[in-house]
Amino acid sequence: MEYSHRPVLFHETIESLDIRPDGIYIDATAGGGGHSRAIAEELTTGRLLAIDQDPDAVAVLHERLKGYPCVTICHCNFSEMKEAAEENGILSTDGVLFDLGVSSYQFDNPERGFSYQHDAPLDMRMSRQGTSAKDLVNTLPWQELMGIISRYGEDRNARSIAQGIVRAREKAPIETTFQLAEIIKASVPARVRRERGHPARKTFQALRIQVNGELDRLSKGLDAAFGLLKPGGRLAVISFQSLEDRIVKQKMAGWCQGCICPPDFPVCVCGKKPQAELLFRGGVTPSEQETSENPRSRSARLRVCIKLPC
Predict the structure, then answer these.
(1) pLDDT one-digit tens code per residue, 191-244
(2) pTM of the entire structure?
(3) Which of 76, 82, 138, 207 is 20 to 30 Å from 125 by CA-CA measure?
(4) Spelled out in words, what is the top-level CATH class assigned to the domain 123-212?
(5) Confidence of residue 103 (pLDDT cuts 50, 70, 90)
(6) Domain boundaries, given as residue ranges, for the chain
(7) Please, what CATH class does the domain formed by 10-105+214-307 belong to?
(8) For the chain, what is the HEC assignment?
């Protein structure tokens, strides 16, 4: 299967980076290379570090970006961005881009085991290494499974789903995505099964986040990216679900916050100054045309901040 991914908010994201021909940029989630190629095409004497943790994506990037000598490709997770940048002689950047979540290729490729819409081995590992979703559902106590589903899936039926998984695995190991989806469906109330959307959606999201350590790595990656930005540099982040967006929003709000003295203080004594300013208040969401052409873009939100001089 060809590695393809349709970037969401593509033009808005590239424009928000305000790319300089001699600038230094990092694409922290290079994937199929759509954003990376657009950035590389704007560069003359500048550089681009394209990062991805998926070995399939890295192989594709080497092929698709081989005509751009300004591009360096790195196989790692974006939480390791600082180390990857330093290893490649990059100490500061003019812009960093994150396009979070799962790529179209990962969702649509059955063998990767991300989707309940394809019958496949239950995997969900973006890096193809480490603990898989199959390992989690077949080994964790129901209390831990409930915590994962509740915390990362925000599913009110987490308890019944977790207990249903444990009951099912006592009869036979849970090996495939369809097996798990049917177990989840049978574990929720009938009214939930009648609702729009598959009842397994939230659990699959929760397991994927746990398998890949997505939220912890996102927090670390955002800190690394902001630390690498030059004054005037821009950090652009596209998120697709509320847990990710909340982290991005809170990080940027923290960088943009100035004085934290109590409001009744006549003068500032804390000395805290804003480190950044938002480019778009509230972020940018896809147009009606984009959501009609690409329904997967519906939940996307682009947030951008600009680093201020010290």
Answers:
(1) 888 888 889 999 999 999 999 999 999 999 999 999 999 999 999 999 999 999
(2) 0.89
(3) 82
(4) mainly alpha
(5) low
(6) 10-105+214-307, 123-212
(7) alpha beta
(8) CCCCCCCCCHHHHHHHCCCCCCCEEEECCCCCCHHHHHHHHHCCCCEEEEEECCHHHHHHHHHHCCCCCCEEEEECCHHHHHHHHHHCCCCCEEEEEEECCCCHHHHHCHHHCCCCCCCCECCCCCCCCCCCHHHHHHHCCHHHHHHHHHHHHCCCCHHHHHHHHHHHHHHCCCCEHHHHHHHHHHHCCHHHHHCCCCCCHHHHHHHHHHHHCHHHHHHHHHHHHHHHEEEEEEEEEEECCHHHHHHHHHHHHHHHCCCCCCCCCCCCCCCCCCCEEECCCCCECCCHHHHHHCHHHCCCEEEEEEECCC
